[in-house]
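Subgroup meeting minutes
Present: P.N., E.W., G.H.
Scribe: E.W.

1. P.N. recapped why we're keeping a running log of single-chain structure predictions: easier to compare across weeks, and new members can see raw inputs and outputs side by side.
2. G.H. added today's entry (108 aa).
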Amino acid sequence: MQQMASSNTILQTIVDDSKRGRVMSFYAMAFQGVAPFGSLIAGAVAARIGAPHTLMIGGALCIAGAALFALQLPAMRKLIRPIYIERGIIPQVATAVASSALRQPAEE
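Output recorded in log:
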């Protein structure tokens, strides 16, 4: 869920307004349209090797995907940061964080 929300937020903030609908339709198709195929494959694998082993393989693939993403993250940040600066997103976030800095609760 976190990955889907993060991807959605990043896509909507870096895409030009005139192309946002097109990009989001591809995004929705990629997540909702491909999921049934993944379920079909997982069911076929579970029928052959059993559900526990299928879940272990799925978990290992998720960890491998997360590691690959972590390796690509610095390059993605270098590409996205100039867009955020150009659109004024980064200063707004910095101002919001500074204004809501961790405050000590008032002692009663």
